[in-house]
Design brief:
Elements: H1 17-26, H2 29-46, H3 48-51, H4 89-125, H5 127-142, H6 145-156, H7 160-186, H8 190-197, H9 202-210, H10 215-238, H11 250-257, H12 266-293
Length: about 300
Amino acid sequence: MTTYAPTPASVSKPPGPFLEFWRSFSVNKGALGGLIVIALIILVAIFADVLAPHSPIDQDRAAFLVPPFWQAGGTLAYPLGTDDIGRDILSRLIYGARLSLFIGVIVVTLSLAMGLLLGLAAGFFGGLVDTVVMRLLDIMLALPSLLLAIVVVAILGPGLVNAMIAVSIVTLPHYSRLMRAAVLSQIRRPYVTASRVAGAGTLRLMFATILPNCMAPLIVQATLGFSSAILDAAALGFLGLGAQPPTPEWGTMLASSLQFLQRAWWVVTFPGLAILVTVLAFNLLGDGLRDALDPRLKR
């Protein structure tokens, strides 16, 4: 009986890292749906100038509290109706998507950068550095996050920039503690010892050797941090401490329309749905990334 060795063309190549990640990620239909929703929101934010039928701050004094087009008295000129001073709700929602994504990017970038440095230093140096950093973070975690954000904004003053700084400070401990735990799990590994013996300096050990192997949990946390940042910024806007009118921010839209809840449901419902859908999409995406990046959770 003659046997034939497989030709190189018949030997299947192992999937690349990206393909393997995508296979694990696409199994989670909820995460895939979240990714699609986030992609649509990003497209809406990028092309807001084209998609929005009106300016988000223009007022039509003849169209106060116009209902959505499918209700009596509604018009296609204002598909989702208008608010109490005649501004188009759909246009404000579209421009609010751009602002919410901008808030998420800035908050996650600031908190991730600061948390990465603090957690990396605490885990790598240990001793007094670790004790001081972790006790400061424990004090921050002992306070309710929204209360701490309100205190920071009260000190800095109300406004969108100060609200983003406050939310960044509030979410900082989560990144720092996660980074410290990842560093402690890697610092005793043989590859770190080999790099140290080979003469690698402190900065090279920290940023070139250890840091790349600690990024997977941080990527997941950053994705979930988007939803937290949007939600906290909306909460501050709702309390009048975040973006100030007439900025089209979803939380500010909710705060300015509560008094019309019973007579004009659309001025409250649509901004609330926008926050709900966006936060839910980022949470689903974060869960999918966690399942795909953690080998213990792969199916």
